[in-house]
Amino acid sequence: MLWACILLPQLALDAVLRGRDDPDAPLVLLSGPAQRRVLQAVNPAAAALGLRAGQPLTTAQALAGHFTCVEHDPAAIEPLQQLLAAWAYRFSSQVSLHYPRVLLLEVESSLGLFGPWPAFEARLRAELRALGFRHRIVLASNPVAARMLANCHDGLALDSPEQTRAALEQLPIERVGLPAEAASAFARMGLRRLGQVMALPREALARRFAAAVQLHLDRLLGVRPMALAFYLPPDRFDARLELNFDVESHQALLFPLRRLINDLAAFLAGRDCGVQRFTLHLEHAEGPDTCVAVGLLAAERDPLMLFELARGRLEQLQLGAAVRNLRLLADDLPAFVPQHSELFDPRPQQNQPWEQLRERLRARLGDGAVRSLATEADHRPECAWRLDSASRPAPTLAAPRPGWLLAEPQALSGVGVTLLTGAERIESGWWDGGDVRRDYYRVQTPAGLYAWAYRNLGEDGPLWLQGWFA
Amino acid sequence: MGAVLSLDGLLDQQRVWKGRPQARPLGLQPTGHAALDAALPGGGWPAGALTELLLAAEGCGELQLLWPSLARLTASGERVVLVAPPFIPYAPAWQAAGVDLRQLSLVQAAPAEVLWAAEQCLRSGSCGAVLCWPHKADDRALRRLQVAAESGQTLAFACRPQQAALNPSPAALRIAVDARPAQWRVLKCRGGLAPAAPIACPGRG
Predict the structure, then answer these.
(1) DSSP character at residue A151
(2) Chain A CB within 8 Å of residue B92 CB
(3) How far is CA B74 from the centre of its chain?
(4) Largest CB tally within 10 Å, which of A422, A467, B34, B103?
(5) Which residues of A419-453 are buried (b: 16+ CB within 10 A; e: fewer)?
(6) Domain boundaries in chain B?
(7) CATH number of the domain at B36-200, please?
(8) How does pLDDT run along chain B (205 residues), one tens digit per residue?
(9) Torsion angle, CA of A340/A343/A349/A354, rounded to 10 degrees?
(10) How far is residue B54's CA from residue B56's CA, in Å, rounded to a whole number?
(11) CA A264 to chain centre
(12) φ and ψ at A136, to 5 degrees?
């Protein structure tokens, strides 16, 4: 088995940066008590100003004037780790979050599909970059070795135990994850590299050090296996983005929305499912959330399309109050069936399939805006058609029917109207309360239009106009 | 006039009038009415362009003009979209005219959204024909439809009242539909002179 270790060296900083639309502005994370604020992490722009992690805030303010301070929030990291695990689940069925801020993937079984490894690695890096995470990737023959090699290397690929062992022997002793007192004891003994420690007789090492040291060394070499807890993807997607400031316009919501939708798409791709219905919660400082429900007719997972739809719904909304947080909830995650498309498309210039167009129209015009038409087996004109169903064979018609039907019959003034045909009687519906007994005529109006009009049986009133022979 | 123009290009763009050829080839989008096809320069509807139908009144014969084309398009699996029709399309009659109802879609839009919806349908390129009934469409709105029809290579039809015939329009083809007498008058057609004589509607009058 081959294990890839993806180390995320600055997850806390990435968590903040990916929520902002100006990641190149100087930004620092702060931690510590109110009396002694300390810089927890700095982004490259802030580092260029001379700021370093560990500096007190007062020193930083003396060094540089303009930088953004964000409170370090350890709780924000956990949802991101879950998201990354969901993303990695797409590439491997064995994903472990055993070490903090680290993804361990078993990749040998995935190489047939995504391989060879250089291409696979390039894909992992490209997707992580798109998601906004800085990372280091190392491939080794066992998970513990991959994790420890990632401390010192990036892009290392070792596909046999011998190569892994050779690389491990070069590692400095304090970087291999040994307990701190054991590492400092080795260093004081003059053993600077792991190779020197591994050359020691096993019995002597067991006598001098705790059992945990030998166990760790064995696991590093893959002699003893390690039990890892594997990630299981949840059945729903729930992500929340804190905006940290009050947003009152749609435009400013689009960037965080795009970020959330991209996360959703990464999650869906990992689970190999689509989303049919999701809800955007716009959380305000006070009062209930504003909910925007986005529904689709078929499951989809293309981030661009989902974003376009959510944007269409969002732009219709009147924001009553400023938005503090944005939350995306998706419960309904049916299996995703990719669009069937022809190799030789009869319409090569088609740049948007009908399903996508339909969703776009529904997003702006409302859920019931796009309808289909069908015939119904009924003689009454108002019952002979219906929306959104399969057609039933219509009764054979003795006389032609008009192409346009009026929603409500209108009285037709009798002046100048000529009857063109004799009466066609339609008498039906006594069983369902919609009883009609009418004589239908094809008539011509003074303006020269051909109309379909009726007179109720036994009445002597005006003709009722019901359709146009257009 | 330094640039060398290829003759084929000029002829393809239909910017040079060639006189009347003896045997007219069948157009890409025949209207289904032989007399009308003969009168139009492309032998049918201008493909990938806007056609304006100027109606004497709603329901004065526009469906009779369009049904053969819609039947042909739906039968070949193309989608036909009606954007904000003024009445309910009466399904049995449309079916009797040969239109495959499974390929027919109805978009109900508020008057302000009609042009947007029609433009989206045209631009997507996934429809064979788009019929729309715009309210108060001006020159710019029609030009947008024309450009969208070109980019999506879709037949576009805009039904408007006949009062609009006096205003200039960017549509490639303008046909006035009269009720009394029942006839079609080609007011403008790109790529040829508009025939002077009106064409009688078959089966009316």
Answers:
(1) T
(2) yes
(3) 16
(4) A467
(5) eeeeeeebebbeeeeeebebbbbbbbbeebbbbbb
(6) 36-200
(7) 3.40.50.300
(8) 557 777 777 777 777 776 665 545 555 788 889 888 888 888 889 988 999 999 999 988 899 999 999 999 999 988 999 999 999 999 989 999 999 999 999 999 999 889 999 999 998 888 999 999 998 888 889 999 999 998 888 999 999 999 999 988 999 999 999 988 889 999 998 888 888 889 988 877 5
(9) -10
(10) 7
(11) 2
(12) -130, 140
A residues 389-418 lying closer than 8 A (beta carbon) to B: 391, 394, 397, 400-407
Cβ <8 Å between B87 and A447: no
Domains plus CATH for chain A? Answer: 1-25+67-233 (3.30.70.270), 237-332 (3.30.1490.100), 375-468 (no CATH)
Q: How far apart are CA A441 and CA A412, in angstroms?
A: 12
Q: What is the pLDDT of residues A2-60, one digit of tens each?
A: 999 999 988 888 888 887 777 788 888 888 888 888 888 888 888 888 888 888 888 88
Name which of B88, B101, B122, B157 to mutate to probe chain A: the one with the most chain A Cβ atoms within 10 A of its Cβ: B88
How far is CA A23 from each of CA A102, A245, A336, rounded to the nearest angstrom? 23, 16, 34
Q: Is A467 on the interface with B (CB under 8 A)?
A: yes
What's the gap in Å between the CA of B7 and the closest CA on chain A? Answer: 26
Is residue A442 classed as helix, strand or coil in its secondary structure? Answer: strand
Model ipTM value: 0.85
Rg for chain B, CA atoms, rounded: 17
Both tokens of A288, joined, read: 């209930």
CB-based contacts of A201, cutoff 8 Å, min separation 6? none
CA distance A285 to A298: 35
Taking a C-beta distance cutoff of 8 angstroms, is the pair B200, B183 a contact? yes
Residues of A in contact with B104 (CB under 8 A): 372-373
- What are B176's strand-pairing partners? B54, B185
The tokens for B13 are 């763009």
